[in-house]
Specification:
The chain has 332 residues and is of the alpha+beta class. The chain folds into two domains: 60-223, no CATH class; 230-331, Orthogonal Bundle (Arc Repressor Mutant, subunit A). It has helices at 5-17, 22-29, 45-58, 64-70, 79-85, 90-99, 132-152, 173-178, 207-223, 230-240, 248-254, 259-268, 273-291, 296-302, 308-319, 323-331, and strands at 3-4, 42-43, 108-115, 118-125, 160-162, 189-194. The strands form two sheets. Strands 3-4-6-5 form a four-stranded antiparallel β-sheet. It has a two-stranded antiparallel ribbon with strand order 1-2. β3 (108-115) and β4 (118-125) form a beta hairpin. α10 packs across α13. The chain is globular.
Length: 332
């Protein structure tokens, strides 16, 4: 699954105001101008990352993510936005947004908790975003600052925010778009709102409309191909240097999350870091055994086992046969 075209449309609107040749951007990321006006068109994560890098190479646009996010209204979220607006309370609207967030955002995942008198939202990546990560988090913060105003009123504000990176030169712009100054170089990317706002009634509440919209969201969620999962992201990082498998702590740092949250996310996907690592090793082992004539001991070393005997045991447990038996089967 990719990002909804409305996000690209808003990104190009901001870029155009800074003199960026948006026609060139679309050509280079292989999206037609007509696609931007189609509600059912999505673009890939790769195109998303490429578009941000290209725009930044063409113009110096401080606070690009914040500016893009501030332009995205609840109506831009399509059927999910209408499902939110027709909810009885802002808390129910948030539950809708959490349940169907993959419809609008395939690169970030959000969850929230109640802590004292605040609802605290944590933003984490679903895939390796590289230089686009800070942009995407800033965009998400600005979107929620606006959603809060769209649903409750102009006086509604985020109470605090925190981000994992150092304060940029445009740090004073955060208050303009978010209504508060973030804390920089923190352990997580988060924002908070007063918990009392969860019970705030919404003026367009309509139970029948809410049910219809949520049913449509369920259908869309089933039809859309899911974007890269946390397991896919961990696998991608491991395969970068197959003979030197990184620790969970290293992978968590690459994904801009804490080791604890990475463990939790993998647990939610019914697996563990150890299981994912073993699956990747076994996939690579099968590839080496079938595509090369390398000795089994060397295959063992290439996939990160210091002892060939440990590799044999793990391979038989995972594949139901020894490496030698698999190679004989493949070449026989």
């Amino acid at each position: 699954m990719g990002s909804a075209a409305i996000y690209m449309k808003r990104l190009l609107e901001v870029a155009s105001s800074f003199g960026v040749d948006t026609a060139r951007v679309l050509r280079e990321i292989r999206i037609s101008p007509e696609a931007l006006n189609a509600s059912d068109v999505y673009y890939t994560v790769e195109q998303h990352i490429e578009s941000i890098a290209l725009i930044k190479s063409m113009a110096d646009i401080p606070a690009l993510g914040l500016m893009v996010g501030s332009r995205i209204s609840i109506a831009d979220l399509g059927i999910m936005g209408y499902a939110m607006l027709s909810s009885r309370s802002f808390g129910e609207a948030i539950e809708v947004a959490m349940r169907f967030q993959r419809l609008t955002d395939p690169v970030l995942h959000m969850h929230y908790r109640i802590e004292n008198d605040e609802a605290v939202f944590t933003i984490e990546p679903l895939t390796v975003l590289g230089d686009a990560f800070e942009h995407d988090v800033e965009e998400t913060l600005a979107i929620w600052a606006r959603l809060l105003r769209d649903c409750i009123g102009d006086d509604a504000r985020l109470t605090r925010t925190s981000v994992t990176w150092r304060a940029p030169e445009y740090k004073n712009e955060y208050n303009k778009f978010l209504g508060c100054h973030p804390s920089f170089e923190q352990d997580a990317n988060e924002f908070a709102i007063p918990a009392r706002l969860l019970s705030h009634p919404l003026s367009m509440a309509n139970e029948q409309a809410s049910q219809i919209c949520e049913q449509e969201c369920e259908t869309l969620l089933k039809e859309l191909k899911r974007g890269q999962t946390i397991i896919d992201s961990v696998r991608r990082i491991m395969i970068r240097n197959p003979g030197q498998f990184p620790s969970l702590e290293v992978v968590a740092k690459v994904l801009h999350m804490s080791p604890r949250n990475l463990r939790r996310r993998l647990s939610e996907s019914d697996t563990t870091y150890r299981n994912v690592a073993e699956e990747v090793r076994m996939q690579l082992a099968v590839q080496y055994l079938s595509d090369t004539s390398l000795p089994i001991e060397q295959v063992s070393f290439l996939i990160g086992y210091t002892e060939a005997s440990n590799f044999h045991r793990a391979f038989k447990r995972h594949m139901g046969m020894t490496p030698k038996e698999l190679r004989a089967q493949l070449t026989g």
